[in-house]
Each structure stands twice: as C-alpha cells, then as structure tokens.
Design a protein that fits this description.
By secondary structure, this protein is mostly helical. The protein has 7 helices and 2 strands. The longest helix has 27 residues.
Length: 172
C-alpha cells in the first residue's frame, strides 16, 4: 500500500534534480501518481468485495474457474495462475468451499488428482457480481485515464475516483 496522500508538486520534484541529477521529474511524477492511484484502487476493490462477503483473492479464483467452468483445475495450477503459494491456495479453496462456491472432486483419469470446479451456486454468485463490477470498472477507468494538458505525463495529478468502485449502488 502506498501511504503518501500529499504528493509533491512537479516543481518540488524538479528542484531535487540539483541534488539528484538522475531524477527524471516527469517519470517520478508519473510514478507517484501511479502508486497513489494503484493503492486507492486496491483499497476500494477490497472494500467492494468485503461488502459482497468475498475476498479479492477468492474473486480471482472464481474468475479463473469461470473461464471454462466444465474443466476443473488442480490447486497447484490455480496457485500459479493467482500468484500465490499452494498453501495459500489451500486456504482460499477451503474458504470458497465453506461458502459453497466451488467443489473439489477427483479427476476421472487420475483419482490421485483433485480438480476444483465452480459449482452452480458459485457461478450464480459470480454472475450476480460481474455486471455491477464491470460497470464500476468502466466508470473508474473512464474518469481516470483521460489525458490532460496539465502535465507532460498525460495523466491527472489527482487520483481517480476509486471510491466509485465501492460506493453502494443504492446511494448512486
């Protein structure tokens, strides 16, 4: 998480170039904006998923399984695709199974292998989230990636309205 809310002005970054000649002020400014924006988006997405009683990691697993719901994946492959350890994946799968969103079953060709599949309820829960989720992502990206003339990096100095992801749709 990026903790700096008050980003330095371009002039302050440029002023450091006398002490640190390696500074590329445009690159530093773009980097800081990217870090601030990324942190805001991650926090907003986590809040959104928490409201829907699922973790971001759990959502990622469901999305991967949804790509081809009839074909299961073994936990090791899921861990690799999600970028987590196999132990972490085991915990994620235990949680998703307790929520009755997935099922584990033996592979028909090799009973030693366990395959994970999205079950009907998991697919239903995921589908109920996706329309709203994709709408919120579109709103966020439309508001945040439009180039501005205010700086040479081509992005706004303000963080995008990441809160648009986590606001209650009834309040909008």
């Amino acid at each position: 998480m990026f903790l700096v809310k008050d980003l330095p002005k371009y002039e302050a970054i440029r002023a450091r170039a006398t002490r640190y000649p390696e500074i590329d002020p445009d690159a530093v400014e773009a980097f800081l904006i990217l870090m601030r924006t990324g942190s805001d988006v991650v926090m907003a997405v986590e809040k959104y998923f928490t409201r829907h009683k699922i973790s971001h990691a759990g959502f990622s697993v469901l999305m991967i399984l949804q790509r081809n719901p009839k074909v299961g994946l073994n936990p090791s492959d899921l861990a690799t695709r999600c970028g987590v350890t196999r132990a972490t994946m085991t915990g994620l799968l235990d949680s998703l199974q307790r929520q009755k969103l997935i099922r584990r079953e033996s592979d028909r060709t090799d009973r030693r292998t366990v395959l994970v599949r999205l079950n009907d309820f998991g697919l239903e829960v995921l589908e109920s989230l996706l329309h709203d989720y994709y709408r919120r992502v579109a709103l966020l990206m439309a508001a945040s990636l439009l180039p501005t003339k205010s700086n040479s990096a081509g992005c706004s100095r303000k963080s995008p309205p990441a809160s648009s992801i986590c606001k209650d749709p009834k309040a909008q």
